[in-house]
């Protein structure tokens, strides 16, 4: 920016042409562009270094469950989960978040709850 201001004063004084000012600005931009890239590279290097130190600190933490340590055993659940004709409406809302929902989950079965935004997935999970 200082180059342009000084160049305008030189043009007014008759010491510089407009073409020379444009050329010097373009050359200056081409010289400074790699310096900007170097600054960006230094920033990325510092971020990578910080990430590496954070990862090293995480890996240096003691194990939560050392090898050979006895762990609690999960009790096996028997039976199915059955939801039958469930309707739910939040306070102050006219539309039901869940409307007459029914399903059964058998033991060992894995299910996924999918649907559009606002279709009641989170309400059902609660």
TrEMBL record:
<dbReference type="GO" id="GO:0016887">
    <property type="term" value="F:ATP hydrolysis activity"/>
</dbReference>
<dbReference type="InterPro" id="IPR011527">
    <property type="entry name" value="ABC1_TM_dom"/>
</dbReference>
<keyword id="KW-1133">Transmembrane helix</keyword>
<dbReference type="GO" id="GO:0034040">
    <property type="term" value="F:ATPase-coupled lipid transmembrane transporter activity"/>
</dbReference>
<feature type="transmembrane region" description="Helical">
    <location>
        <begin position="6"/>
        <end position="27"/>
    </location>
</feature>
<dbReference type="InterPro" id="IPR027417">
    <property type="entry name" value="P-loop_NTPase"/>
</dbReference>
<dbReference type="InterPro" id="IPR003439">
    <property type="entry name" value="ABC_transporter-like_ATP-bd"/>
</dbReference>
<feature type="domain" description="ABC transmembrane type-1">
    <location>
        <begin position="1"/>
        <end position="47"/>
    </location>
</feature>
<keyword id="KW-0812">Transmembrane</keyword>
<dbReference type="GO" id="GO:0016020">
    <property type="term" value="C:membrane"/>
</dbReference>
<dbReference type="Pfam" id="PF00005">
    <property type="entry name" value="ABC_tran"/>
</dbReference>
<keyword id="KW-0472">Membrane</keyword>
<protein>
    <submittedName>
        <fullName>ABC transmembrane type-1 domain-containing protein</fullName>
    </submittedName>
</protein>
<dbReference type="GO" id="GO:0140359">
    <property type="term" value="F:ABC-type transporter activity"/>
</dbReference>
<dbReference type="InterPro" id="IPR039421">
    <property type="entry name" value="Type_1_exporter"/>
</dbReference>
<dbReference type="InterPro" id="IPR036640">
    <property type="entry name" value="ABC1_TM_sf"/>
</dbReference>
<dbReference type="GO" id="GO:0005524">
    <property type="term" value="F:ATP binding"/>
</dbReference>
């Amino acid at each position: 920016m200082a180059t342009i201001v000084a160049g305008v004063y030189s043009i007014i004084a008759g010491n510089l042409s407009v073409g020379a000012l444009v050329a010097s600005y373009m050359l200056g931009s081409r010289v400074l562009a790699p310096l900007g890239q170097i600054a960006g590279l230094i920033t990325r290097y510092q971020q990578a270094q910080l990430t590496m130190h954070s990862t090293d600190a995480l890996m240096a933490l003691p194990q939560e469950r050392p090898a050979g340590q006895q762990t609690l055993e999960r009790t096996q659940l028997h039976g199915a989960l059955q939801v039958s004709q469930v309707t739910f409406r939040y306070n102050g809302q006219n539309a039901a978040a869940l409307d007459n929902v029914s399903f059964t989950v058998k033991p060992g079965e894995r299910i996924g709850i999918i649907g559009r935004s606002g279709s009641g997935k989170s309400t059902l999970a609660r």
